[in-house]
Amino acid sequence: MLNYKICVEHGLPLHPSVYYELKEARKYKIDHGLPAVENANRLYRESILLARKALDMGGEFPARGVEFLRKLPRELKNFIYTGIRDTYTWRGSEPTLLLRLAEMLRREYGPELILAAAHGAIMPALLLAEFLDTPLYFIRFSMFKRHDEEPIISFSDKAWLSDFSSKRVILYDEDVAGGRTLELFSRRISPLFGQTKTACSIRHAGSSIRPDYTGLTW
Fold first, then answer.
1. CATH number at residue 145
2. Helix or strand holding residue 74 (H, E)
3. Apex 71 CA angle, 132 and 79, nearest 5
4. Do residues 112 and 37 both lie within one domain?
5. Residue 45 and residue 39: Cα distance in Å, rounded?
6. What whole-number distance in Å separates Cα of residue 64 and Cα of residue 111?
7. pLDDT band with cut points at 50, 70 and 90 for residue 13
8. 72 plus 127 within the same structural domain
9. 179-205 pLDDT, tens per residue?
10. Is the peptide bond before 119 cis (omega within 30 degrees of 0)?
11. Could you give the dihedral angle defined by the CA atoms of residues 134, 135, 138 and 144, in that order, rounded to the nearest 10 degrees?
12. Range of the domain at 6
């Protein structure tokens, strides 16, 4: 749903199996219309809540999942999701590691929002948010898989995030190897909030940055 939202907001084609890069928006310039933009953002936010329902094992997910599918635009019905399992994302999603990070965050900071860099951080951030019982939002920033030059943040994102402008916010990436992604993510996103701290599941010992909170350093 995040990529659908980005395609609609930035005038990219909607194709069931082709992943368009943001830089291609200059070529297509498709006007999907304001109602489609509003609906894409609504579905995106609902998809985060739905994913959390799938994790909390409370029994509401099947019915809510069926209802969500009914709301999907026709052009999304045949979309194909593909992905390659990333070793470090997989390791950064380990529940005991995330639980340890959550306990540290709860004790030392008390975050009121987790804002995570997608796509890699999606699965671990969902678990982290559930452990903390904290609101969650994603901004796409994938430097290595999608070659994003900066976080893709729209006016709609800023409008939703404005409710948290005075809150304590965690900027999260699951894996800090060189550190460039989280560093740029923090530099671009931090000005939207009064208080931010950075966190990651795994930090490589040779990384150029040290997040404020780390689940594991190796």
1. 3.40.50.2020
2. none
3. 90
4. no
5. 10
6. 27
7. very high
8. no
9. 889 999 999 999 999 999 999 999 999
10. yes
11. -10
12. 2-76
Strand, coil or helix: what is 152?
Answer: strand
Residue whose token pair is 């969650």 = 136
Question: Buried b / exposed e across 177-208, counting CB within 10 Å, b at 16+?
Answer: bebebbbbbbeebbebbeebbbbbbbbeeebe
By DSSP bridging, strand 168-176 and strand 213-217 are unpaired
Average pLDDT over residues 1-22: 88
pLDDT in tens, 68-112: 999 999 888 777 766 667 787 888 899 999 999 999 999 999 999
Residue 150: closest CA among 196, 192, 181, 119? 181
Same domain, 59 and 158: no
Alpha helices (runs of H) in the chain, residue ranges in sequence order: 2-10, 25-28, 34-56, 61-71, 87-92, 95-108, 122-132, 155-161, 180-189
Tell me what pLDDT residue 100 has: 96
Please choose, from the candidates 154, 153, 193, 202, the residue with its C-alpha nearest in 3D space to the C-alpha of residue 171. Answer: 193
CB 3 within 8 A of CB 138: no
pLDDT tens sequence across 31-76: 999 999 999 999 999 999 999 999 987 889 999 999 999 999 988 8
C-beta atoms surrounding 84 within 10 Å: 6
* Residue 82 domain-assigned (yes or no): no
Q: Which of 1, 2, 13 is nearest to 139 (CA)?
A: 2
